[in-house]
Amino acid sequence: MPRKTKLTQRKLDDEADGEDLTQETSSTRDLYGVLGVERTASHEQIRKAYHKLALRLHPDKNPGDENAKEKFQSLQNVFAILGDPEKRKVYDETGSTEDAELSSETVKNLYQFFRTLFKQVTEDDIEDFSASYQGSENERKDLKDLYVKCKGNMERVFDHLMCSDPDQDSHRLMDVINDAISADELKEFEIYKRWAKNVSQKPRPEPRKKTKKAKSSEGSEASLLALISNRQKQRNSMESLAATLEAKYSGKSKVKKSSAQFQEPSEEEFEATQKRIAQRMKSKNK
């Protein structure tokens, strides 16, 4: 009699497993519950639970179940996530199987693809741009605009002015503002007068030493300006790819109106990009 009860319970467990594997979407079910393990289960426990269910739910062992193939495929998808440490970590953090699918190799491929669309900004690029920007007409214009907007509050000016350092640039920027005040281009605010008096009592810092990289800043500046001028075109390509991913992983047939106007990269364009990436990686390894 006890054995009969045990077999009956096992049959109920089998039916429950089948129901879990035929839920409407994979994102609505608990993957750990499908395998019948705790969320703290080890990789070995997950592997054993998967093998046990795989033997039980294999289509060859369930010829009378028309959903057997679908159940078995769903089980494989569950193990593809929980059996992969990186994908399992993403699933544990987000509870989403779609996010888990975007981990591992897929993310690396996307990163490499994005690198072909956007130039990676390095420390040398920043130093070159800083060297070309400081003392330029653009910096003087930005400084005057910020001085007016911040009503002479130089702490706020330094918070917003690119490539500026209060310890290094206070005297230099003070000279620019004083010249503009003398030329009646700017109003002298009381808060600025106090700041300028305090700065004047300090010794001027040594000029920045220009590196070899900074000597070629003219060419680097041109590259950065070209990058900025093409930002909108590149953003269109990015939003096109984002719209494609949104449609693919959200399960929606339509994308948002804001991204619907952009076209998906063609198969030929994507394959060409992948070939360029492979060739670049191959040349680096030589």
TrEMBL record:
It holds the Pfam family HTH_DNAJC9. Residues 217-227 have a biased composition (Low complexity). It comes from Ceratopteris richardii. This is J domain-containing protein. It comes from the Eukaryota. PANTHER family: CHAPERONE DNAJ-DOMAIN SUPERFAMILY PROTEIN-RELATED. Residues 1-25, 199-286 are annotated as: Disordered. Residues 277-286 have a biased composition (Basic residues). Residues 229-239 have a biased composition (Polar residues). InterPro entries: AtJ6-like, DnaJ_domain, DnaJ_domain_CS, HTH_DNAJC9, J_dom_sf.
